[in-house]
Amino acid sequence: MSNNEKAASSATPRHTIALVDDDRNILTSVSIGLQAEGFTTRVYADGASALKACLENPPDLAIFDIKMPRMDGLELLQRLREKSALPVIFLTSKDEEPDEALGLAMGADDYITKPFSQRLLVARIRAILRRVEVARADAAEPAPDDTPAPEMVHRGRLSMDPARHEVRWDDRPVSLTVTEFLILETLAQRPGVIKSRNQLMDCAYNDDTYVDDRTIDSHIKRLRRKFRQVDPTFSAIETLYGAGYSFGEGG
Asked: Which residue ranges does the Swiss-Prot or TrEMBL entry mark as DNA-binding (predicted)?
């Protein structure tokens, strides 16, 4: 690395990643690998200690194993989501597919199946952090005088404010993760137009990160669940089996 590259690297804030796994070998190897990529890491061997630490001193992103003592990854995510929108990646085994889908439905941002490459994990982490940072910057920084602010989206009973990352249904707030917001915004911008899973992936994961169909399906299920907590009759996100999803203003 050149001196200029080192200077640029040292000037870049280090993101903090919380690692939660009862396997000490995984904790150690992943932590060392992430530190080599410029991240700061905190490690926890069980969900209970991780929950307390993540709420009191939140990291930038957390990585949870599903199977853990004292409090497993699913319970940890459920309790964390009651108070925090902290980005979360699940680590799962090949035989834990139902848990993967449940984790995404509960609000995880992504999952990776073990064994995984360090390169893939770092790519997923950076993709999520980029989406979070863009959303925060749009909400916090006023646009220059010559740059129009992102337009509000009004579709029937739905209102979306991209600049503030706010969503309302019948003027009642609905709290969404960054990924959920991007998927809904893509659908709502063109009501009635079917968006394939690949098109939704491109909008929600605007990089080379690979996600499969189940990831998009799980995000859609969670979107519907969140809106039905506000309006039990919500039906605005429509499915065309084999083709994709669309937004219907009748909702």
From this structure: 150-249
From residue 208, how far is each of 30, 68, 128, 141 by CA, in Å? Answer: 22, 31, 12, 27
First to last CA, the chain: 55
- Locus of tokens 């940072």: 133
Which phi and psi (to 5°) does residue 156 adopt?
60, -120
Domain that holds residue 63: 16-138
CATH number at 214 reads: 1.10.10.10
Residue 63 DSSP SS3: strand
pLDDT tens across 111-161, in order?
888 888 888 889 889 888 887 777 666 655 555 555 455 678 888 899 998
- Residue 147 domain flag: no
Strand blocks (E) in the chain = 16-20, 40-44, 61-65, 88-92, 110-113, 153-155, 158-161, 166-169, 172-173, 237-240, 244-247
180 and 126 housed in the same domain? no
CB-count burial class (<10 Å; 0-12, 13-18, 19+) for 138: middle
pLDDT in tens, 148-204: 556 788 888 999 988 777 899 999 988 887 778 889 999 998 889 999 988 888 777
Cα distances (Å, whole numbers) of residue 78 to 22, 52, 74, 164, 244: 19, 13, 6, 25, 28
Q: Which residue, among 165, 139, 162, has the nearest Cα to 152 in the 3D structure?
A: 162
Query: How far is residue 113 from each of residues 66, 153, 163, 211, 240, measured CA to CA in Å?
Result: 11, 36, 34, 12, 29
